[in-house]
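Homework help board

Subject: predicted structure for assignment chain

Our instructor gave us this sequence and asked us to write out the predicted structure in token form, then describe one feature. I got the tokens but I'm not sure how to describe them. Can anyone check?
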Amino acid sequence: MKKYLHKMKGESTSPPRIPLEEIFWSWLGAFLGISAVALIHTNMLAGTDLVMVIGSFGASAVLIYGAISSPLAQPRNLVGGHILSAIIGVACYQLLGGHLWLASSISVATAIAAMQLTKTLHPPGGATALIAVIGSSKIHALGYLYALVPAGLGALVMLIIALLVNNIPRSRQYPVFWV
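My token output:
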């Protein structure tokens, strides 16, 4: 038991501070990426039952603009993780929607396993799966379209912004890999 508890101590000190220039580029990318998704929602999808802004995109922004060299932030993970998780979340809602606790837990756990199997692990994908289960009636009405709009299209829009913004400064390169 002592050995088990000792693992929770950690192995090192906290990482160094992030330079202000990096913080600026992360901020700018996140602002532009989320703005683009929200503007599409506001200007193109208003008056429809489609949605474009989902909470998991906030977490994706942290990765693709703030942790750009992380394997979890790469294009394959961003787009593949959201789409795959959305499909799983919708399936769980449709099969188990009457049992929120079960649909929620199975959707997230299965999304994690599927992303690991397909090398598309993207932590916000877990939230995308969960949103498909616990989301509004507008989300539920989308059915499997949820995997394309908002999950796939929103991730693609944010990816385009990440490619443009993250490669402006000489100190940054995105992506590290595509596939």
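Reply (TA_rk): Your tokens look well-formed. For the description, you could write something like this. The mean pLDDT is 96. That's the kind of observation they're looking for.
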